[in-house]
Write a structure and sequence with these properties.
Blueprint: H1 2-8, H2 10-16, E1 19-26, E2 31-34, E3 37-41, E4 46-50, E5 53-61, E6 64-72, E7 77-83
Parallel strand pairs: 1-7
Antiparallel strand pairs: 1-4, 2-3, 2-5, 5-6
């Protein structure tokens, strides 16, 4: 009898091993792909239930993109965030060290 009850509970245990992946992307216009499938945009946090193992997250915004592999453990909830540089700064010079401020003994 105990064996029958243990086996009957197996499917519940299997679904408990699913993982949660929460993807938070900025800006809102960026497109989110997981394992090659479009999942939405940065306008909302994507909350996905996935099988444990490796998954590929790809974020595309205009001509820029970022791709990363994540490994999810059984029952884990992973919060993953990515922010592209602010579009408003696109017109500003990108002179590398020009934006840095160096202070020696409190002076510029």
């Amino acid at each position: 009898m105990a064996l029958v009850l243990a086996l009957a509970g197996a499917p519940k245990g299997a679904s408990a091993k699913k993982t949660q992946l929460k993807i938070d992307v900025k800006p809102t216009a960026a497109t989110v792909y997981v394992d090659g499938k479009k999942k939405g945009t940065g306008a909302t946090v994507q909350k996905l239930t996935l099988d444990p193992g490796q998954h590929t997250i790809k974020i595309v915004h205009q001509r820029d993109e970022h791709e990363e592999m994540v490994t999810l453990k059984p029952g884990e909830t992973l919060n993953w965030k990515w922010t592209f540089e602010d579009d408003k700064s696109a017109g500003a010079p990108s002179g590398g060290d020009k934006d840095k401020e160096v202070r020696l003994e409190g002076e510029k």
